[in-house]
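I hope you will forgive my troubling you with a question about protein structure. The record follows directly beneath this note:
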Amino acid sequence: MNKDLPTRRSNCSVSYALDYIGDKWTLLVLRDLLFNGKRHFRDFLASDENIASNILTQRLKQLVAAELVLRRPDPDSRRSVIYEPTAKAVDLIPVLLELIRWSGKYDPQFRMTAKLARRIEEDRDAVVAEVVARLGAKN
């Protein structure tokens, strides 16, 4: 058993999902990877939420172990690595969009535009396709 993978608490599908993505920092790393184009460790550290480097290191290890993220040498810099989402992570885009839509509806400080909220609500599949196409263009 991989020590970086969580211990399964039950056979419940919600519990399984939460074991892998139910942590604030994990979701924010996935957000940055899938929506904000971040690929390097230093990029994730620069996020507004100020994740500590030791927590980021652990979350990236967990995401790699869970096969949500690939870690590979940066072709532009031999001393760096880049992180890329796998198909398994890309499948979480609709889930994250729903979290974004929900926050836009209930958080009075949320900065989502009305246009984006409407697009997610009316044609989530098109928004998902745009995000996936943008990810494909980066690879």
